[in-house]
Amino acid sequence: MKLDLSAYLVIGPENCSRLVEDVIAAAVDEGFTCVQIRSKVVGAREMISVLEKAAQVIDELGKSDSVALLVNDRLDVALAAREAGIKVDGVHVGQSDIPVEVCRKFLGADSIVGLSANTEEIISAADVSCVDYFGVGPLHATDTKSDAGAALSFEKISKLVKVSRLPLVVGGGVKAEDLPALAATGANGFFVVSAVAGADNPRRAARELVDAWILSVDNSAGKPYNLRG
Length: 229
Hints:
It is a single chain. This protein has 229 residues and is an alpha/beta fold. It contains 9 helices and 8 strands. The protein has helices at 20-29, 44-60, 75-83, 100-107, 120-125, 154-163, 179-184, 194-197, 202-220, and strands at 7-11, 34-37, 68-72, 90-93, 112-116, 133-136, 168-171, 189-192.
């Protein structure tokens, strides 16, 4: 699978007032390219159930080979889901979670392993042989991850992009109006939680974000406007 970080949805049951799989289906149908299931409140069995439903709706949209489905932190859940026949593409972990080399050992070379990082020192020192991308943030303070640290400026993100040997996806309170400046940093994409999962109309919110990102990337590259069709 070719990993596309352009539009990355992070979602769990506590983020939604509707079915998680319905929000995922709407977002993926509108152009989101990566989905991470994250929850700090539900148990392993419910996480596996959510993964199964997410994998099903992604498959029904014909995007199992182009939209990665990841699990936050829970290597055990990813492995158990795979044992149950669910297509899980990998995990995303933080600095205090299971080491990336352990994730790589158990998931295999063809799986995706993402790592949270927000300083030049961490990104420069990371063993990139075990990691596929860095998750960077927060761009703004956000209620969905209170321990995310201090907000990063666009200037700081630009510096992180320059020192990184891997693709970077940036999130933390990201809104559509942030995307032109974010695209200009050279980041490979954005991730959101509440901007889609907590929206009154998740489909419309997803469409607006995808359109804004495509337009912003085109403008940063000096291309004409290119609204998605």
